[in-house]
## 1
Amino acid sequence: MRTIEEINKKIKSGKAVVVTAEEISSIVKKKGIKKTLQEVDVVTTGTFSPMCSSGILLNFPQPKPKIKTGGGTVYLNKVPAYSGLAAADVYLGASALPEDDPRNTVYPGAFKYGGGHVIEDLVNGKDIKLSVFSYSTRCYPRKEYSCSVNLKSLNNAILLNPRNSYQNYNVAVNLSDKVIYTYMGVLLPKLGSANYATAGMLSPLMNDPYYKTIGIGTRIFLGGGVGYVVWHGTQHQPNTSRTERGIPRGPAGTLALMGDLKQMSSYFLRGVSLRGYGVSLAVGIGIPIPLLNEEILSYTLVTNKDILMPVIDYSEAYPNGKDEVLAETTYAELQSGHIKILGKAMPTCTLSSYARAKEVANTLKSWITQGKFTLTQPAVTIDRLNNDD
Amino acid sequence: MIKRKYLLIFPEETVEKPITYNLIHDYNLMINILKASVTPGKEGRLVIEVQGDKKALANAKLYLKEIGVNIKPVIEGIRWLKERCVHCTACVPGCPSQCFVVDRKTMVISFEKEKCIVCKHCLSACAYGAIKILENNAG
């Protein structure tokens, strides 16, 4: 047994032993579970992938005279933001598109610029054009306002993502005879490709499958800066079918995350353009798992071979909401570059980056090792969030 | 024997001439058509890989110039912007010439430019803006 306070003492004195979720398995193989638990304090995880349910909460300095944003419309570089909040508060979603974007009028649309790209531009320190159109009140007389804002001039810029870090996901294939364009990427016809997602054994929720250490207030790596888990994410589904070691056999847990955009970097926060689908934001997330006991350590020993993923047809079953799983495959097989399903071999690919996920886990590892990042005790862990006790 | 890639842009009046046939028949060149956009009555574009005798190739180029065909060497039709690439692998399956090679241990991508036939599949597969196309050379 070990507590978070004990781990933090070691972190502050520079003595904490931190390894990544990729490294922990081989250490346990060599030293056994008991010895490893004595020696290692923290396992770091990482993921990097488009996560459409992301966005930023902004507050801009009021002009003179003042303007009321609520009930009006607000644009950032022509991308509409949500303004049904107090004056000067706006929320820009990663998937928002300019009103004049042609969408899929000429199929497949290119979706060159949208919310995710505005977020990337802001993080890169670029100037963004803010336009507000509203109505006049006694306290907020101005009807129109436009100015240039950037990360420095904004009063607040907070990344606030309602659904990130999916625990496991579908493998998308295409049974039809035409190319289809989806949020999982370009799907080649007649089982021409298998498009998967997540960072497998590096994924945060794969290493704490029952959410026993992650909870409200868990301090994390978010987009190159420091963030926090604020709730479970939307569509969080812990009660899915699981393998013996607790790995869900499809999409299950999700996390809602928050962090100061002003600390982040575009290396870990990237606008993406998905052909024929829309825009999004790729987010780098890393969560430290404190090795509090043998059980917690045992969960971090998950390997890519242990992760079963459902193969779903995105030409018919997925769009129509049919629960048809064509086959199951493992993350390890997907990562080899080819899988075979329904008797057919096909190449695999992903829009998630395993290489960058590894960089996230290694960066978090070095922050903790250098004493720059300590762990937090969550107020409530996700597994107990909806319990009354 | 040399091997070169060219983009041929020919004005509408030459579209109906059997240029490829002449290159093969008169200059004994091996022609591999990589990409073609030829519509009668409109400017045509052809990306070819040519293999043959150095002198014959030089003569063939003179012939093409004489009949009004604009010849541009395809140096880099597709550019892979390494610093924008996140190494996700989305470009890998649809590439007919397997230009994008994944080191399966590190999951890091590299681009083997010489294999590229400028089909532009990667341009629609890449979500991160890591593929740029030089329209002049790529046709």
## 2
Amino acid sequence: MTALTRRERLARRPVPMPERPPAERRVDFDEVNLGYSTELAVAEAERCLFCAHPPCVDGCPAGVDIYGFLAAIAAGDFLDAATTIAKDNSLPAICGRVCPQEVQCEGACVLAKKGKAIHIGHLERFAADYSRANGRSDEATTPLSSGRRVAVVGSGPSGLACATDLAKAGHEVTVFEALHVLGGVLSYGIPEFRLPKEIVAAEIAQLESLGVRFETNAVIGMLETIDELLTTGGYDAVFIGVGAGLPRFLGVSGEDLIGVYSANEFLTRVNLMKAYTATADTPVLDLYRKRVAVFGGGNTAMDSVRTALRLGAEEAAILYRRTEAEMPARDEEMEHAKAEGVEIVTLVSPKELLADNDSGRLGGVRLQRMELGEPDDSGRRRPQPIDGDTYDLAIDVAVIAVGNSPNPLLLRTTPGLDQTERGTLVIDPTTCRTSRPGVFAGGDIVTGGATVILAIGHGRRAAAAIDEWLAKGGYPKAQRL
Amino acid sequence: MNRILEAHLLAPDIKYFRVEAPKVARKRQAGQFVIVRVAEDGERIPLTIADSGDGWIALIVQGVGKTTTLLNRLEAGDHLLDLAGPLGVPSEIARFGTVVVVGGGVGTAIALPTAVAMKQAGNRVISIIGARSRPYVILEEELGATSDEVHPCSDDGSYGFAGFVTDKLAEVTAGETVDRVLAIGPIPMMAAVAEVTRPLGIPTIVSLNPIMVDGTGMCGGCRVRVGGESRFACVDGPEFDAQQVDFDLLAKRNTAYEAWEHFRRLESATS
């Protein structure tokens, strides 16, 4: 344990994440954050007060032993730190980079009130990266085979987390992925500059070493149904982690103009299909010196607008109908975006997308000015239009980042799955079981669109429940749906 | 990786492939498509499944863009890098009565499986297949085997009926009662067919070919306007009511990357 006194620890300043300068990073797709050195990591971990009842652990949806891994880093036992994290989180290099720590572990930190919360996310990333570079301490040991088989549908965060725990429990796991690349949103959605794809590949390779099989180009629901997996396929249980799917649009006129993208399409073209490279055969509209407007205020909107900058956009703006305080994006993404030159326009709502003459291409947007009214169901103040206060803005490309609806391909062919009005799957929160025996679900197909760590939490809870289901044919603490 | 079992040219630039894909072959229905990738860094392109048998599916490809050109260089024994499917809503097959199947150019290959299914469902099937000139009229024999009548057409009069498929269609509908039309081909052809059948009140179906990326409903790039509503061709289609489709919009949206494609072609021509 650290030799510093409490007073000394309180006096220390938080150690900022080293990052590439905005002018340099905004013209390429390399990672923005550089990561802590061992010295910086120790210095940051030493600031921890090591609370007797650490609130940060309660703030973590995966319940990571933050106390334990910070103590290990402070003591210089970096591989031990990684082992400690791995007990509760199978994707720490990813979570350390993409979790909204300010509303989770770091938000709960007792130092947060003074604005000096421990940078738990940065330290988690450090431990995971260190362990990957210096030989993982948790060498994969093949557990005794249970002889049971589980199908995991979707290779995004919830599917990967579920597969990890099931494989460790000795079950034979096959992960089915509809696309030609594994990783789900980690691959097609989150850009390289925020989450390098080699990190995702390394996590998947680790899973392969545990004996997990992966099948790409397998569109479950169309190629095989859930029922077929459970009968002729020979699987004893299925986990559905297919993500949120179908992009939502604004519902205003002009959305079919060339130059209007869903965030999914824009990011898929760039991240998955590598449209920013010279060798890729998938195009993306030329954004060089163009004006790009992104509608939405979440992480996907931030990823889109910063991607537009990197593709050469002259102006790249976020257009959001509430104020910055209501934006769901991570603080770090907002700060990075602003530093890179992203303009944030608030209290505006698109009324109509305007054509550039008769070309069929986008030329502008008519915006309605908004003001905040009474709080709505989400507790955020509801934006309402200011009568007659509209103006036109010239733009070349619009990216719509206002969320997704569940993808119909799997649910269409799977009878008996209870769904909400929004089309998301109904699960028991403790076990992640659906209304069908042996079928479990988690991630965005349940939440409708949330965070990577929440999806991981679902995947792990489902894995525990599947393990028990396979052993006993019943559910742990079975709850009525 | 999916092995190509057989490959031969049907017409200049139009090639037939029999590809190993046992699971897809078992599941696929008329009107459905697969997404194919042929090169690292390559695009994902949708291709309608033309036929299937024990362990294989057939794809018929016209070399127009980079990916289809690369694909058409492959021979038996080569492999497709990725193949995913079957995707899309299958054709609505029922005993309608008399069904006219109109195929234009390589669209004939997309129409073939639905013509077969329509015949099997007990319909009288009349096939009208057209192209700009004789060598491009494809699958006449295959459609002949499943149709009560086949009318090949050529724009330049070098083969069969001299004129557009729409002229032939007008002739057929003037001569007998037609209960349903399926038209697949270039956008102007499908739009023209919709205008021939609209005043006659004949239900008409087209299979649309918007630009796709994932093909699984994830990106929304393939959205088309049908009856004033936005629909995704990959999960709601690819077949839609021809008389409700906004063909002008589809044609415009399909030009989105013209400039990019042009410069890529120049680049590869000069390198």
## 3
Amino acid sequence: MFLEEIQFNHQPGFSGDAMAMTLNRDTPVETPEWQRGRPAQPVAYVGEAVNGGVLTIRVRFSDGPAGQRVRVRALDADPQTDLDASQGCAALVTNLIVGAARALAGNALGSVAPNEVTFNEFGISFLQTFTLSGHFIRRGVPFTKRETRWRWQYEEGGRWVDIGESRHTVYVLPFAPVAPWNTLTTPRVDALDLAWEWAGGSRTRDEIAQRITRNVNRLPRVSYDPMTMFGGNGSEPFQLTSWLTAMRSGRPFQMNCTDCANAVTSLSNLLGCTLSCGRMNGTINTHTFLPIGGAAAVDSDWIAFNERVFLAWDYHEICWLDDFTSDRVWDATLRLDGDPSEDGRLAIDPVNMPWASRYWPLLVEVPRTRINERLVARRAVI
Amino acid sequence: MRMDKAMNAIDPVVAGARAEGLLILGFNAWIVAPDGMNTPDVRETIVPVRTRALWADQRVTTTELESSEAALHSLALELDANQLSELPLGPTDLGNVSFVHPDRVAPAVFFVRANVLVTITSRNTDVLPLAYRIDAELRARPQDNVREGGIDLQVQPDAKQTTISIKPQWRFDEGYVKVIAKGVALAKAGKEVVAEGKGPIEVFVVEKGRETYLATAALGTL
């Protein structure tokens, strides 16, 4: 008997199965995500949506007994997860440790409960629905990327016979993606991989947004430029693919506030945050700040855009919680100077910062700054 | 730089750009290399009409619009995505109009030639030499190694304008089409070109390393 294909995303929504995704801008994750003889495609689940409920997959087999029904199952192929609490205290303790470890790493999908598969006269089965047992997809789960290895078996004469193994890369998101994802843009694996690198293990939205903001701000080889480099003016989409290419190129590249706001919003909202890019148009005379790519200890890296010394900004764009009605902001473009003295410098990350009482007075000369217009956006991603 | 401010500087050149009678089809950001370079570190197609090339520290983005008017409008939109409150005009002999970054920030130039918007940014390399090379490529009438033929050119006049169908007879991946009709307003319309005005039209298919092909016709209305 052969395992032919496994479908993880087989129904609308993602409360009982995997989420629809694309690998990148151009390549969808195709269903079935696993096919015999082809590279497996990644799958993703949303902890909050599944919340420990029933998860199903659809599976097809070939070369089975013609016209017969056979029971099939798949075990978690990681040996430490097959422990049984009835084996005594040591096993019980080990199970607790394994359980805790599985909350952070290892197989998240558990095993595949046995079910009957019917084969036609050519020994080929239809797609059969199987239920996952012992999965760890539930509310409160941290953002993780895991490997699942299943050992498939069929029952013959009262014993289980191995069919083969399947391996799967599984992302577990704590929360459902928020716009632009699932509205304008299908969630992307290349974005998830970067988010995993930066915010893996995060359990809360605040932690996700904070870690992503800091990581964008500390990107190597990046420097500040007042020009938007990766799209996103007005309703133009954010050029995520191009930004990822720039990061991987090994070459220096530049970002401005719109680029940073788009990057943080896109990656954070992919993991369920509710950030928006908020653009303030007007005449913005800043205090001295440390732009993205600057070194806090290098005095000349601290700059200001101010009519007194050079030019003001015509606009600035940052991430807002929800929209302008909230008072919470994140800004990866810069670090503020938190030292009240003239000469001292204290670099502060604007993450989850109150806008009115803290962020804005630290960034700008309030009496000499005028905001004429505010625009808010969650831009599509290309 | 606010769009209205940019348009104040752009508006005076719109009529001249229209009368230039130049239209470019299929131009890519990597067609012109900086002096001494051959292959970009990165080449990307952002969307079919927008391409980007990275040459060491210089990042070139080209956007092909329907017409020179659309390209100039797009330039103003592009500048609206620049945080600086003022951008100086660039050299008057660069593009139909150009803007540059002031001295205290990283070098950048933004210019339009015909229906192509070109942006070059860098961390600390002078971007003007490459800008001039690209502009020269865009505006020049090919002279060397030009041969008539190789292009199916069909001209269909009506009462208001002429519709031009251009079909090169071979596939080319790295080349582009240049349409020249002095004093005629040219614009892309789907897969075709529309022209408002009368006079001769020249269509070139330009590809580095190959001879340039040429087709000609006369434009007019019924």
## 4
Amino acid sequence: MNDTPAISVEHLSLRYGGVTALDDVTLNVERGSVLAVVGRNGAGKSSLLQCMLGLTVPQSGHSQLLGCPSLDLTDDVKARLGYVSQSPELFEWLRVGEQISLIGGLYPNWSEELARALCVRFSIAEDMKVRTLSLGEKQRLAIVIALAHQPDLLVFDEPVASLDPVGRRDFLRALFEHEARDGEPVTVVISSHLLEDLERIATHVLFLEKGRVQLIGGRDELAERVQLAVTAHAIAPQAGLLKSRQLAADEWQHVVDTRALADGALPPDTALRALSLGDLFEALNT
Amino acid sequence: MKSILDSWRFIVGLLGGRLMIAIWLVSLIVSYGVLGWGLAYPMQFLDTHRSFLEMAAILASAASFGGVLALTYLWNVGKRYSQWKLAPSTDRIAAQVSRILILVSSLAAIPAVMLRAYSATSDRVWRLPDELPSGYTPSSSKTFSFADVPSHAYAAEALMFAGVVALLLVAFRRTGATKTIAMGPVLFWAASQTTYRALWWLPFAAGLIIVVLEYVWRHWLSGRVENYFSQMDRSIRKKQRTPCLTSWRQQKAARSRGADDVDARLAALLALPSGTGVTALSAIFAALYLVTLPNNTAEHAPGTWALSFVAWAFAYLVGSVLARPVALPVMRLALLPVGHRRTQFGEVFLKVWWRDSYTKVLWAALLGFALRAVCSALGWPAFLQSPVFAYGPTLAQWILVPLAHVVGLLGFAGSVCLISSASPRVLASANALTVLPIATVILLTPIGLGCKWLLETNVVALANGNLGFVTFVLVNGAMLPAFAWSFTRIFRYQWRTASLPAISSGMQIWSDRLRKMSADVTGARS
């Protein structure tokens, strides 16, 4: 098996005028992992995914997909890549079947049976004009097209934002069942605000805040490592203290990285509480 | 076979549909046919069949420029549709389609250049005998063939053609607006013959305006928010930002007290949410109109009624840009406990639209007066400084004529707002709202021109045209608004039973349509 990471991002920075979308982001996504990218609106999630894919050119830094520079993807790498953007980008003048067939014809690994099966699962009528589909239906169609060539690298930018609960369930099932044609481990990068969904599928989590990496790691590792502490006094800023917030006059809440926090930084009798992904997100962002 | 068919459908759709392809191919065939006919049969100067050659020149030019536009659209698809960009082999396919488009455009350019050079040269020979090709004497019985067109005329036409192509490529390389909006400049350029070389700069100026507008739109108006942020981020940022004009109006609404202020409060709460960019563009457009007004006191070039009609119609066109009713969030307001009654809403709509319109007119006046002074001092544009128009720096030139037009534009804009707010039934229908802006102009134009005719035929002092600006003020500043006000009164009873949810729904659908159209114009993705 190839040891190079599925995605490698180094010192990526992106600015739009006076707004910093990404600030020196560096990360590797190992093959076979499912990376959940979370952050508040404007944190830089979409910008990061677009830079990863070479759709947006960063001011500095570079990224690689499956060992290939993102800004110069080869057809081989493109054939192994599936992408669903936040707002589905489809050719509105075609019918669903034509759209599937047109895009499918470009991929060497395209599976016509899988495409049809996914259309049935996602309740998409092939004879409808794309422009007549609702936003959710377009999103489902984009998912079908992203999955039907059985890629081993999937990038989803808020794929379920427009889907109803049934659509979300179908999406997650399709993702669980997804296998790459060539037997390669499937790597998934997914950004979403639906943390309970991410909790079910993610092996790794990346928290972004104002374009910077706030926290990254394996989900189990983070659950074990990053915990919530409540103290009666403030704690001085230091390594391992990720966030502090005053709840009341004599009540402070801290998100701490227990491995990085110095011994004695917390009062001796402080109780530490493990956090779910949702709780951690809330604690880091409020 | 099926994939070939799908690719064909994709390309056909990409280029504007089967009808567009058919028009394109027919244009190509017809222009070659007419070129062959013109080559085989030289025609006399006054031969009416020459108009076939001129029409074919337009068709061929449009086909060639259309191909260039299709090329820019293809580039845009490559840049904008991530699904296409990230699929394998798309670069190769795009290159193949590009080659076909370049080939077809080049094929269409040959008859276009030849026919345009023929038409332009024969026109010049006939109209400007001093510039005849050596030894050629114009006579209506003589014929003029393609062999009589000097080679430099072909070269000049080819150069002009290449310049327009370059402009199209520059102007539309990013907008993605090729299928609908860009056809306007294409047809304009295709139809612009270059009989008088003095106007060689016209297509380039038009191209420059497109490039500048696109730049202004991208970088200053919709700018970064439109281009760079995702849908959700964009909406969040938009929510966080309140335009200063709206903010001022909201503060004004908050300060108002008492029952007398209910209308003002409603209108302030309904303040148009983001009119700054549109206001600026409209004001600039109207200011340019004020700059190019003739310097004499008549409203038109001397004498002819036809030109007088054109000048007024153009003024109405400018007025219609300044007074554009837009959708308002009716239900949001209808549910607020601010002491309003259903019958007040007609007045509220009028207030909101009128305020928007007069803001634009006043900004345009401010800018227009300053620009007009600068342009007059610089002697530009040259044709307005010619003896026909320029009567010297008089009170009329500097003040009265532009002032008359400002008052006239205000009156016309007010009339449009009055008519637009007349009937709640019209405002409840998205289809009616779609045609409302043009329908009001169509209604008001003949009435305005009719009033003008009445005044000029019955008031001796206004008959000679030198007091055209007075007629303009009387008609558009007083008579037209009076008519519009009376028209509004006729329908005002309908507001007693107006369905506010229906108006809200109609306006929402209308607004969505406009947004979609705007996205098409700017190339923004919805």
